[in-house]
Amino acid sequence: MTAVLGPADALRRVRARVALAPPPAGTPLADHLADLVRDEFPLLGDVEGAALAARVLADLTGLGPLEEFLADPSVTEVMVNGGGGCWVERAGRLHRTDLRIDAEEVLRIVERIVTPLGLRIDRAVPMVDARLPDGARLHAVIPPIALDGPCVTIRRFGARPVPCSAFGIDADGERLLRGAVEAGANVVVAGGTGAGKTTLLNAIGGWFGPTTRVVTIEETAELRLPGDHVIRLEARPPNAEGAGGVSVRDLVRTALRMRPDRLVVGEVRGAEAVDMLQALNTGHAGSATTLHANGAVEALHRLESLAVLGGGDLPLAAVRTQIAAAVDLVVVVGRATGGARRITRIAEVTPPGSRLGVVERWSVRRGRVEGPSRRPVLGGVD
Question: What do you get for the CA distance between the two ends of the chain, in Å?
């Protein structure tokens, strides 16, 4: 910035001037900041002055130095580590940037986002999840649980829908999946963190039909399903007094009273598994959800565990019967070498029995696996 004044000090000086001299009525904030920069640093060149004014504007109204990454459509994730280092993800690969942010600035950015939402982050509540205005998801942790300083992760979702074919599936596999969805099969998308579960769920939602009444339920809203009859519900954490919380399980129960043709739960990770299974077994066919699991059978076992934990005294045999009756297909997604997201397997869930099992219908190695289906909804799928 100058030989004796660093960028951080220059930012603080301009911010202090703005606090003392807010913009007059009718004057755009950007123009006012440009005037303050010229007045505070008359020796700065036009390019440096404009850059400083833009940096202050981003700091006052946006995410400060992180704005440059969020303005880049190729960036899908931004990570700020406790030591001040910043990483970004492009095309599934992580890249280290030259940006370093001190702890004070990270905290200011997070507080600016969460405070208008009625959320808080401090030593008593050192973790927070929030949604940015553009739909990106922010997660932040601070000391004392983040030992090296505040950490922020921002996951972005593309403005344009990603088609199913972008997941490396061939025409036979896509025809199988699309036919099952259009026939009303209940689908579980399984995979690890960042594998593309939500992105694939958005693609599947494009096959629901324009007039289908769809209710989506998410802890943090990420889905952007097409159609004119989509109702989006988002859970809400308790406020600072511990009141006002609305869980995903509450929303599942509410959604059942909204006459949905299809129910889409962004991710099942708790007791809502019980209510979702009951919904799928009582006439809400053609629904979909995601969960964290490494494979098709593992997805069923994880769903089983969540339902047992949330079902109170519900017997294990009854839980297995509900899962086998409710879930028709499990689609497994993962990251290929190089970071690309791929569908690796489509498996049909076997009918209710003493154990949960699947039959492979498509895999990235074998392609389409022919054979008669034992599930009525899949009987006519080519």
Answer: 65
The Cα 274–Cα 291 span in angstroms is: 14
pLDDT, tens only, 222-258 = 888 888 899 999 998 877 677 788 988 999 999 989 9
**Cα-based angle 296, 194, 360 (whole degrees, multiple of 5):** 20
Phi then psi for residue 11, to 5 deg, are -60, -45
User: What pLDDT is attached to residue 61?
Assistant: 67
Residue 355 CA neighbour count, 13 Å, CB half: 4
Q: Which residues pair with 143 in a beta bridge?
A: none
CA distance 269 to 137: 17
Mean pLDDT for the chain overall: 85
- For residue 28, cis peptide bond before it (omega within 30 degrees of 0): no
Q: Give the integer Cα–Cα distance in Å for 194 and 339.
A: 10
- Give the max Cα distance, the chain: 79
Rg of the Cα atoms in the chain: 24
CB burial class (10 A; 0-12, 13-18, 19+) of residue 372? exposed
Residue 313 is predicted with a pLDDT of 78
- Which tokens hold the place of 49? 């002055």
Tally Cβ neighbours within 10 Å of residue 81: 19
Which residues have C-beta within 8 Å of that of residue 81, sequence separation ≥ 6?
87, 148, 149, 151
Nearest to 98 by CA among 86, 90, 81: 86
Residue 237 tokens, joined: 């954490």
Helix axis angle, 272-280 to 316-326, nearest 10°: 50
What's the gap between Cα 126 and its chain centre? 20
The two counts, helices (H) then strands (E), for the chain are 11, 15
Instruction: State yes or no: pLDDT of 270 exceeds 70.
Output: yes
Q: How far is CA 73 from CA 60, 76, 98, 146, 156, in A?
A: 22, 8, 19, 29, 9
Q: Which residues, 6 or more positions from 104, have their beta carbon under 8 angstroms from its beta carbon?
A: none
